[in-house]
Recover the amino acids of this structure.
């Protein structure tokens, strides 16, 4: 693991993909885009739609949410005509090559896959079918989360075919903000390069200040209460009165917008509040309100992707948020802040050397377990050197549903044995269903299996 980055090799593969697409494009009757159901994926989709429109290509799109196998999913999408005059263009999805190659092999269409998710290990990359162009920077030592978002990759591809796509570069900024979960001064590699390139082109604005992601668009009072990155213990999910008293004590108007705070105020808030959160963030000046803040815009898309996918696909083109989206967003953010507070203060836990079990009864509704687990890990609310297993009894199936999360610190300390590996170890011994990625996944277990897991967790890590 941790390969040296083969930058030139990757750029060569990208160029080759671009050239193949350019050569064949006048021959294609139609291109079908398939993208991921998250902010990054929706940003990729719009970049591609823009590109194909400019190239005068007819196109259609589908969103893949990974709840079904590629075989079942593509059955409903692949055209019966099976003609080489069509192309499929995957963005931010498509690295499950052991599932996809057997399908692609039997087709006449061209398949272009631009993805930044890790490729399943048991696939032989050297023996791709001829009709597959596979561009994935993780094969050349880049990290899909830290170095290159799906939208960064898609933007790089599109720009080589149509340089004026730079005007749509704000879409890449949304993808980067949504996938990296960091302030923009911490970007690395291609994410950083593209960010700086687009900034120089004045496609968006970069600002510096107090970072309260999730609530950058609101007042400092709401910002402290509803910030989810960082989640600030002592403020997050606390009462308005408590936060108001704190701000009044500093002579800061609680209604002052987060973005309007001056340096002395920001310094005071951090010093007296006992936290540090200062950095850079991206603003999309052509949009208003919440949508003008790249992180919040991306988070809204992520939320809508689960609630109402067509609202997600359409809102990215709007200048202002709809009333419906605003309601969905504020409900989500206030629930999450509340749940993170409950998780850090109230829930009993069972800890071993390498794991933390948190059993939820009625404190947090099951639909929120997964995001609560994710953001508690991203914020390191618990020991980052332990894997988190959070969940409880799911009444309808009478099984224990667990969200499993770990940090990069944990991966480094444990020979890169991540959540997906732990889940397959558990399944082999204890049964159950589930899966995931290095940092996040989930499993359903019978109650007796869960008890055994709790007793012997170390042997699965
Ligand atoms: Mn992505």
């Amino acid at each position: 693991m941790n390969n040296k980055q083969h930058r030139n090799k990757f750029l060569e593969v990208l160029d080759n993909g671009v050239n193949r697409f350019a050569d064949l494009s006048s021959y294609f009757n139609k291109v079908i885009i398939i993208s991921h159901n998250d902010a990054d994926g929706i940003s990729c989709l719009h970049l591609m739609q823009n590109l194909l429109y400019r190239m005068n290509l007819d196109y259609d799109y589908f969103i893949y949410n990974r709840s079904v196998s590629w075989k079942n999913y593509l059955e409903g999408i692949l055209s019966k005509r099976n003609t080489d005059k069509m192309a499929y263009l995957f963005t931010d999805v498509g690295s499950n090559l052991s599932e996809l190659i057997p399908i692609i092999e039997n087709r006449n269409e061209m398949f272009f896959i631009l993805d930044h998710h890790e490729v399943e290990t048991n696939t032989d990359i050297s023996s791709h079918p001829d009709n597959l162009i596979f561009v994935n920077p993780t094969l050349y030592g880049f990290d899909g989360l830290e170095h290159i978002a799906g939208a960064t990759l898609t933007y790089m591809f599109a720009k080589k075919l149509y340089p004026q796509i730079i005007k749509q570069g704000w879409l890449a900024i949304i993808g980067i903000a949504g996938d990296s979960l960091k302030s923009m001064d911490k970007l690395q590699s291609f994410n950083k390069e593209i960010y700086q390139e687009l900034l120089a082109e004045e496609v968006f604005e970069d600002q510096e200040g107090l970072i309260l992601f999730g609530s950058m668009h609101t007042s400092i009072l709401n910002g402290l209460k509803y910030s989810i990155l960082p989640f600030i213990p002592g403020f997050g999910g606390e009462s308005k009165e408590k936060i108001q008293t704190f701000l009044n004590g500093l002579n800061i108007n609680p209604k002052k917008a987060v973005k309007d705070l001056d340096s002395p105020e920001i310094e005071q808030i951090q010093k007296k509040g006992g936290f540090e959160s200062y950095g850079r963030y991206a603003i999309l000046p052509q949009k208003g309100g919440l949508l003008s803040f790249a992180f919040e815009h991306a988070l809204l898309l992520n939320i809508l992707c689960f609630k109402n996918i067509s609202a997600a696909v359409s809102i990215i083109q709007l200048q202002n948020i709809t009333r419906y989206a605003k309601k969905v967003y504020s409900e989500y953010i206030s629930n999450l802040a509340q749940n993170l507070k409950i998780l850090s203060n109230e829930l009993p836990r069972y800890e071993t050397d390498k794991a933390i079990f948190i059993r939820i009864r009625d404190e947090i509704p099951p639909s929120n377990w997964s995001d609560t687990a994710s953001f508690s890990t991203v914020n390191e609310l618990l020991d980052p050197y332990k894997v988190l297993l959070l969940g409880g009894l799911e009444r309808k199936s009478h099984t224990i549903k667990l969200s499993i999360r770990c940090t990069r610190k944990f991966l480094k300390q444990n020979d890169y044995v991540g959540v997906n590996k732990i889940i397959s170890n558990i399944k082999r011994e204890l049964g159950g269903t589930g899966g995931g990625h290095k940092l996040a996944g989930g499993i359903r277990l019978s109650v007796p299996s869960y008890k055994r897991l709790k007793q012997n967790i170390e042997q699965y890590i």
Observations:
- The pocket of manganese (II) ion is lined by residues 36, 40, 92, 116, 149-150, 179 (CB under 6 Å).
- The chain has a mean pLDDT of 94.
